[in-house]
Amino acid sequence: MRKLLIISAAIACAFSFGANAGEKSRSLTNEEKTNVEKAVKATLKDPDSATFKHTKLVLSGDGVVDRYCGMVNAKNSYGGYTGYSVFFVGITANKDGERVAIYLGPQEESDIAQQSVMEMCAKYGY
So which residues are the signal peptide here (predicted)? Predict the structure, then answer.
C-alpha cells in the first residue's frame, strides 16, 4: 500500500509538469475533454459524482492513437468518494474524422490494476 501511495504521488507530480522533454503535448480540446469524461464515466458506479483532473495530451507521434492519462474521483457503491485514481484513455479519429476516446484502464478496482495504469502512463510521458 505504501508503494502505491508513493507511485500515486509521483504520478500526481508528473501531471503538474506535463510531457517529457522532446515530446509534444497540448491541452485537450473541449470536444476531447467531453469524450474522455464520457468514456471514463461509463465505467463508474456513480458517473454523476465524477470529478476530473486533466493534464496535457501527450501526442503519440504515430498519428493514429494519442494516449491520455488523467485522474478521476467518484463515489463508490457505499456513497463515499474513493479518492483520485489514474485512468488511461486512447484518443483517435473515427471514420468521420471526429476525435473519440476509448477507455483502456484500469479494468478493475485493485491496487495492482492502478499500479499497472500508473506504469503505463509513466511510459508515455506522464
Answer: 1-21
